[in-house]
Design brief:
Residues 4-120 form the Response regulatory domain. It holds the Pfam family Response_reg. Keywords: Phosphoprotein. It comes from Thiorhodococcus minor. This is Response regulator. By secondary structure, the chain is of the alpha/beta class. The protein has a single domain (4-119), classed as 3-Layer(aba) Sandwich (Rossmann fold), CATH 3.40.50.2300. It is 40% helix and 19% strand. A 5-stranded parallel β-sheet has the order 2-1-3-4-5, sandwiched between helices. The longest helix has 13 residues, at 12-24. The chain is globular and about 35 Å long. 30% of the residues are buried.
């Protein structure tokens, strides 16, 4: 059975690029446009990894990480931030919130897939 990865980004084109790379590697992909949308779509189904942007309307990525970690079903789901941000303070805030990895845009699909393969739950 394919593993499911949720991709959260306010850019539809970026969600599409990430989705194509992940689907090409055999993953199932759920998409959300921001943190609030993602929380609404996390309804208890198994998600093996969450890939989230940091800067988004309604609910930013770091707030989303804090919120999703409060949900028993997703407390241990690994989260990778995929963002244009590279400030150490933002990285530290994301790590403190519970994010496991940080990938800076623009990214190369092989780099993304390599990071995903290391993080995705068995």
């Amino acid at each position: 059975m394919a593993k499911t990865i949720m991709v959260i980004d306010d850019s539809a084109s970026l969600r599409s690029v990430v989705g194509i790379a992940l689907k090409g590697a055999g993953y199932d992909v759920l998409e959300a446009s921001d943190g609030r949308d993602a929380l609404n779509k996390l309804t208890g189904q198994k998600v093996h990894l969450i890939v989230s942007d940091v800067n988004m309307p309604n609910m930013d990525g770091i707030t989303f990480v804090k919120e999703v970690k409060k949900l028993s079903s997703y407390k241990f789901t690994p989260i990778m931030m995929l963002t244009t941000e590279s400030q150490p303070e933002k990285k530290a805030a994301a790590r403190e919130a519970g994010a496991k990895a940080w990938l800076v845009k623009p990214f190369q699909p092989p780099m993304l897939l390599d990071a995903v393969s290391k993080l995705v739950l068995p």
